Structure formats: C-alpha cells, structure tokens
Amino acid sequence: MLTRRSSGTPQKRGAPQLYVKQHKGHHMTDDANSDWYRRLSEKRALPLRCPIAAIDKCPRYFLSLRHSAKANALSVEIGLDATEELRQKWAASEPFVIEDNTVASYSGRDGHLSGVSGFCPEVAAQIFGEYCSELRAFPDSDATLSYNAELDDKKAGPNDPCRRWMVYSPKHFSECSEFSLYSNLSVSARTKPKSRKGITPRLRYQILARDSYRCVYCGATGETAVLHVDHKVSVADGGTDEPENLVTACERCNLGKGAKSAT
Prior knowledge:
The protein has helices at 15-22, 34-43, 59-70, 80-91, 121-128, 141-153, 177-191, 201-210, 251-257, and strands spanning 104-107, 113-117, 132-136, 167-170, 227-231, 246-250. The chain is an alpha+beta fold. The strands form two sheets. A four-stranded antiparallel sheet has the order 1-2-3-4. Helix 3 (59-70) runs parallel beside helix 5 (121-128).
C-alpha cells in the first residue's frame, strides 16, 4: 500500500528507503516499460493490455484521463456532459466508485506535469512511458544528486529507476482492484443464466472486502493474482448468491475448481 505524502518538497534524507518499500514485489532494477508490462501479462496468461482501460468501463481510468487532460499532458477532451454522465454511471456502482482525491497529478515549477498518484498505470504510460500508479519527479538538481549519492551507497545499478524518479511505483493492471471487480462483472454479464439475478457489484465488493482481498483457498492476494467471487456450493448444485455461500478465490483456484462445489 502506498503512503500518500504531501505535495510539498519532500525531505531529501531517507527517500531511497521509502522507494524500496514502494518496489515491494518488483526487482529494483526493473523498468516498468512496455516490455516489463508485456512479460507480466504473458506470465499471468492475461491480455497484453487492460481489457477495461476505457472511460466507460473503469472509474480510475476515467479520473486518470481527466486529470491528464486538465494538466494538458494528453491531447484528450472529456466534455462536461460526458463527465457528468460518467460520474452518474460510477456513482450508481457504489461503493466501487473512487473519489477524485484518490487520484492526483502534480505540476513542477515550469508548469508541466511532474508526477501522478493513484493513477491507472496505462494512462501513466501514455504520459511518461512508465506503467506506474505513482510517479514523482525530483524537485531540483540538489535533490537528484543527494538521492543518487544514497543509491550509490546502496549499490544500486546505473539504470535503476530510482535515479530518475523520486517516487516510482510500478503496477500491472492485474494488480488493480478495479480489474478484479469490473472485469468479472463483464464476464458474469455474458455467462450468467437469465433466470438468476446474479451477484451485484455491491455484494461482490462486500465479499472481496470481507475476505481482505485474499483467496480463501490458497491465500493469493490481488497483488499477485486476479480475484474472483466464487460459490462454495455451486449454482449447479443448488447454491445461492447469499453472502455465506460466497468466497474470494483467485483465478487459478476458481478455474481449477470449475463448476463444482468446494469440498
């Protein structure tokens, strides 16, 4: 979990330690570029790009793109009518909807975009070429020299992203909670029987939150796997959509179990 910091000039000492924490799960010399992103997608048997990276499919993508447009970082325009329509769409999906203050962008002294926070990694990549949820540039040359000196002490490689960015948090779309939530909704909408009401977005969120976004079968989390909501007693065996019959399951366990009831 990233810790939000104020938008003021950060303290120079101790930043590399914070950086290392943000690289949890990623080797420090890895660049979050298109090759890195593609390798993770292939390793996880997923599409090369996020299938819900669209303003009408994911609220985080929508807010990230809107911040980018406001900062003139991308040549996109989202009209007021479209913005209000999308706000109403996502508000109807509560408690999934994310607030504006969870997605932020920062401008440097020259007025250009110097960093983002809580961003969709695919939008960040369009701006910076880096698939990250959080990026912050160094505030000045003194900070760059100071941080790089500490990285030298830590034997960091010459091409380590820490040398280019004060804050650098790589993220693959499969690690986004929105992917687990919304991609499953689109799949279930195509496959669920018409006679069933199905699992509502609110109920899906409640089950994932209740289980702490962790697979009950193998313990995998949303950081390493795509999470589904599974029926302990399958629908084919008469199982219902009541909360006590629903559990969080990673894609591997869910697909491995198939339509059978959990034993």
